[in-house]
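Example S7 (C-alpha cells).
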C-alpha cells in the first residue's frame, strides 16, 4: 500500500533545526514552537521520516509565527524510516510503526496540549501522518484537520470525518492519486454538516510540501502556497 514514492527525496534530518525546542509532551519527545500561552494550538504529524526534518520544523515555526502554539511530536520513537537500510524496507518498517499506534499517541498529545491551556486544536498530517489526523477528525477531538499528500486514507475514513477538513494533494501521487481525491471531494460535498476543501496541485509529486529542494524556486513556491492554504484553514476554524 505504501510504495517507493512515499520514500522519495528523503530529508537530511537535523535534531538542532528550527527556532523552537524539544521537550517531552504526552510521553513523547516533541519539537515545540510558539508561545505556550496561546490558547490556539496545532499539532503537525510527520511523514515516515519523522520530526527532525528541517522543512517540517520550518513549517512549524511559520505556523507559530501566525500566533499558534505548535507541537511536532516524535510519533516514531526515535526510529524514522531509513531508505538506505535494505534489510528493513518500508513495509517491514511499517509493522513497527502503524498509524493505529500513532493515533493512540496523538490522543495523549491532545490531552497534554489541553493541560497546557489549549482551548482549540487543529492538526495537519503529511503522508503517513495524514492517516493519524483523519482518525482524529473522525472522533471530533480537533477543531480542524488538514491532510497533505495523504497515505493510507480511505473512502470510509472520509465518510466518517466530523471536523472541518482540507485535503491538499498532488497531481503526481500514487499514494492518493487525483481520482481518489476527487472521490473524497464528492463524499465531502454530500456532507453538508462538514466544511471541506480539496485542492490538487498540478505538476507536483507526493511529499512536495515538506520534501522540496530549497534551491528549486518553483518547488519552493508550490510548497509555500500549500503552507498558506493550510494556515488559512487553521485561521478560519481554530479560534
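Recovered sequence:
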Amino acid at each position: 500500500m505504501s510504495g517507493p514514492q512515499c520514500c522519495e527525496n528523503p530529508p537530511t534530518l537535523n535534531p538542532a533545526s528550527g527556532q523552537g525546542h524539544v521537550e517531552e509532551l504526552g510521553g513523547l519527545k516533541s519539537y515545540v514552537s510558539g508561545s505556550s500561552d496561546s490558547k490556539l494550538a496545532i499539532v503537525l504529524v510527520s511523514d515516515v521520516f519523522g520530526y527532525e526534518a528541517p522543512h517540517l520544523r520550518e513549517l512549524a515555526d511559520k505556523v507559530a509565527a501566525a500566533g499558534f502554539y505548535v507541537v511536532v511530536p516524535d510519533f516514531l520513537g526515535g526510529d524514522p524510516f531509513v531508505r538506505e537500510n535494505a534489510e528493513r524496507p518500508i513495509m517491514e518498517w511499517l509493522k513497527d510503526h502503524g498509524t493505529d499506534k500513532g493515533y493512540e499517541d496523538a490522543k495523549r498529545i491532545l490531552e497534554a496540549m489541553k493541560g497546557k491551556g489549549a482551548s482549540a486544536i487543529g492538526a495537519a498530517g503529511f503522508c503517513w501522518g495524514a492517516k493519524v489526523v483523519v482518525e482524529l477528525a473522525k472522533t471530533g477531538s480537533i477543531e480542524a484537520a488538514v491532510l497533505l499528500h495523504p497515505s493510507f486514507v480511505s473512502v470510509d475514513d472520509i465518510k466518517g470525518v466530523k471536523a472541518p477538513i482540507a485535503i491538499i494533494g498532488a497531481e503526481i501521487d500514487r499514494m492518493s492519486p487525483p481520482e481518489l481525491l476527487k472521490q473524497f471531494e464528492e463524499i465531502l460535498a454530500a456532507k453538508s454538516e462538514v466544511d471541506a476543501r480539496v485542492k490538487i496541485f498540478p505538476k507536483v509529486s507526493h511529499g512536495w510540501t515538506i520534501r522540496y529542494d530549497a534551491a528549486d524556486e518553483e518547488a519552493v513556491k508550490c510548497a509555500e502556497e500549500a503552507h498558506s492554504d493550510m494556515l488559512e484553514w487553521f485561521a478560519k476554524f481554530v479560534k
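Notes on this example. The mean pLDDT is 95.
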